[in-house]
């Protein structure tokens, strides 16, 4: 048994989108027993959150699970929950069975979600990555306090599933988290996935705001004022979970380098290529049919994918022309579905597509970059164990291993699900043994084990372990599909960018002396979105050419607000 369960008030929220304050110091005994607090979040389409949970703005709590042992200095595991950065809470999954091994202390926790945690405007009040800074603050709390609970602050493994997997993959690259962990277990999610880091945070902020009926001018200043005016209830009404482009708008971002308490100032892709990060042991992997995450939308989306496959491309791809985009789109569609109309027989292609775009390819691309940077402590797996409790895949007669199935096996199960299947229990025992061995030694299988040897991964994503009964060490993992995407991303990858600087101009600035007709024609063009880049650039040059012709105070004062909108529009156009 585990001896105690604590719910501790972790770092308090300072501002709606700022980094958290340090946690409180208690001079008297704290009755830390309320584990029903969760952060503001969207209405949960997956019904992950029980009805008894209470949404609070001051939601940053930590749950510490202690084994029933007198031993001290135990390894610590900090688990980051998933939920697409939009939903979830620390105890979405629990790990009491791991704790009962009496070998580890486990910590789960809440962090801010959705726009509350991941609106990224690059301003002083909304710099971005509040939710990630909550995670760093929790790791600092663990570093300073876990010894009091019998844990070893010098032996901390960070683990996470889905968005939590992407989170720990990002924490590994962030200078703000250096020295706070020593091993990493990303379960179905990688730092370089499009859903893990916003490609263009200002574009996303505008798109999210429109879902909330925003009608402003789109400047960063106006967006910030709009978001600050919203209640949490309103802020969390946007529906972003079923977007066709496999992103969720509000997620971690690249911050402006001037940001205080910076979490991430370079793209994960560039950091991995530089090799400038701690090369700690990593247990990397995913389930064989992660794309089952989207299977409920197949009947709705199969026609849409036939008619407009471009809408399903990830936003971290860019193209020089529409013709080039159409050619690449055709190539991707034919790779997964052939040349015919997408119908029920294409369910496997559909599952494979979303497996690769969301989880498998980003993980394998990250592994490749790690290996090229000289990392030699990475253990790669595919979780492929099928059992009778898994649902039948629509339009087939087989069962599939869906998103984060390995997490469901290592943990106590979703909502503590307790199946009686003997093979499943055997797989649970085996998977927990592998996880515990990695947590305690940095290797998934010890050298003196009766299990198959598991060497680190090298080139070409080989070897990898198939986590099934029995275990099977195999060669390259999804090599054909990964090489296919490698070719596309080498030519068309769009690096994520930070928000540009917000523009605040003096209304008497000489740059505002400009012909009224030019202003209106230019703004009409932008508003109607009928002018291409060359037209915008040429007309902006015309605006600049006429700046000295009109006196601001005497002639343009009545349209001051209009001019400010123009300059805001200009800056958003030419800084993206």
TrEMBL record:
Gene3D superfamilies for the chain: alpha/beta hydrolase (3.40.50.1820)
Signal sequence extent: 1-15
MF annotations from Gene Ontology: carboxylic ester hydrolase activity
Family: Belongs to the type-B carboxylesterase/lipase family.
EC annotation from Swiss-Prot or TrEMBL: 3.1.1.-
SUPFAM superfamilies from the UniProt entry: alpha/beta-Hydrolases (SSF53474)
Keyword list, A-Z: Disulfide bond, Glycoprotein, Hydrolase, Serine esterase, Signal
Pfam family, any one: COesterase
Domain of life, per lineage: Eukaryota
Species of provenance: Leptidea sinapis
InterPro entries (alphabetical): AB_hydrolase_fold (IPR029058), CarbesteraseB (IPR002018), Carboxylesterase_B_AS (IPR019826), Type-B_Carboxylest/Lipase (IPR050309)
UniProt domain Carboxylesterase type B: residue ranges: 19-485
Record protein name field: Carboxylic ester hydrolase
